[in-house]
Amino acid sequence: MATAVSRVVLITGGSRGIGLATAQRFAALxxxxxxxxxxxxxxxxxxxxxxxxxxxxDVERAFTEVEAKFGPVEILISNAxxxxxxxxxxxxxxxxxxxxxxxxxxxxxxxxxxxxxxLRARTGRIIFVSSVVxxxxxxxxxxxxASKAGLVGFARSLARELxxxxxxxxxxxxxxxxxxMTRTLGAxxxxxxxxxxxxxxxxxxxxxAGVITFLASTDAAYITGAVIPVDGGLGMxx
Length: 238
Ligand code: NAP
What we know:
Elements: E1 8-11, H1 17-28, E2 32-37, E3 47-50, H2 56-70, E4 75-78, H3 93-121, E5 124-129, H4 133-136, H5 142-162, E6 167-174, H6 180-183, H7 187-196, H8 205-215, E7 227-230
Parallel strand pairs: 1-2, 1-4, 2-3, 4-5, 5-6, 6-7
The chain binds NADP nicotinamide-adenine-dinucleotide phosphate.
């Protein structure tokens, strides 16, 4: 069902996977959706701007372009993320630093820029896409898990800082989802992963997108600082 008023939504990493499914959900609600991509321009129907979230100048330019097209961003989905997996003793410092820079510092860059105009508007929604791995840990993903755990502390701090201006800040923590990111693991590993999930399967991108759009809805106006697991029960208890 379309929302009464079209909102301005910016989704980082909206060219593929969870970000693209989220863009499609918001578009179906009648919102003005802008997506960012890093390397590969998407072929779809969305207003897309190039933005490497590891570059402050890209973030500034992307927001300026979106503001010129639709006006200030009212809903920010910080979704862009990367992996550089490896066991600790083999993990290069660059692998650690690159993942933190894209997944955590990138989230800082876009949230800080979005907050400038949300504070003036005295309203806004910020949703970070973390991972079950940030809560459970994962052998071979120490860098990724650290970046995703960092988002929780970051979001909860922002929830406290920005709550008095009616800006909510929440985290979605997906389990394994059917995207390019997991497809690189190969069918066998993915099936083994699915067996660890109480629901016995990995998620569709739309199942994550539905929770993200809920957190941006008026029904979620009193939810802030929350970490919502969308993981088929994989992280239960954390
Ligand atoms: P994906 O299919 O690999 O897509 C990643 C997106 O992020 C792409 O749009 C990519 O742009 C963009 N991106 C990568 N590096 C970027 C950078 N430096 N600056 C800006 N954009 C960048 O990923 P996904 O599986 O949909 O994951 C989306 C989010 O969900 C990530 O934060 C991921 O950690 C999280 N997550 C995924 C899973 C899963 O199982 N898939 C589970 C839990 C959490 P280009 O296409 O231009 O490279």
